[in-house]
Amino acid sequence: MQGTCLCGCGTTTEPASQNSARRGWVKGQPVRYAPGHWARHGQREPLTQKWTVDETTGCWVWQRARLDGYGYFKPVGASQNVRAHRYIYEHERGSIGSGLTLDHLCRNRACVNPDHLEPVTIRENTLRGNTVTGDNARKTKCVRGHPFTSANVYMWRGHRHCRACASLRKRGLVVSQRD
Q1: What's the whole-model pTM score?
Q2: Phi, psi angles (nearest 5°) of residue 55
Q3: What is the DSSP letter of 58?
Q4: Of 3.10.28, 3.30.750, 3.90.75, 2.40.160, which CATH number belongs to 47-136?
Q5: Structural domain spans, the chain
Q6: Helical (H) or strand (E) element with 137
Q7: pLDDT one-digit tens code per residue, 102-139
Q8: Per residue in 6-20, is it b (16+ CB within 10 Å) or e — as a string?
Q9: Which of 1, 47, 83, 168 has a beta carbon 3.0–4.6 Å from 174's, enabling a disulfide?
């Protein structure tokens, strides 16, 4: 006589070899959990029940634990927590790729919809984001309206600077260093 593990993994369980009140075993009856699975009782429901679908955006919004806005959980059989969007993307689409990270095209960190995720480099993800770095990378003009073109820009200490504004400063027409 065999049973099915109650943690939801689908593993078959063997009959108990002895009675154990502490474990809930009855000799000859299937044990409730496969060895080591008793601690996984929080993972009983299928993975698809851990998010809701936002009809307006199409996002699959993670409904369980979040850290920095990203959903995470501990898969059955895993030793560590994983980011939910990465796990679901790899399950649905395959490997993310070495040196790549997932960019949420919908800008919703709790979204786990693989259609809203794109593997990109960390640099590309940073430049696409709603951050100071991303905002500055998208600028096409300096604060005085001069275009950021290859002929009008020079790099100094890792930052872009406007040649036209530098020329104005040298002539004493502009006092501020902001460009």
Answers
A1: 0.60
A2: -65, -30
A3: -
A4: 3.90.75
A5: 1-44, 47-136, 139-179
A6: helix 132-138
A7: 999 999 999 999 999 999 999 999 889 888 888 888 89
A8: bbbeeeebeebeeee
A9: 168
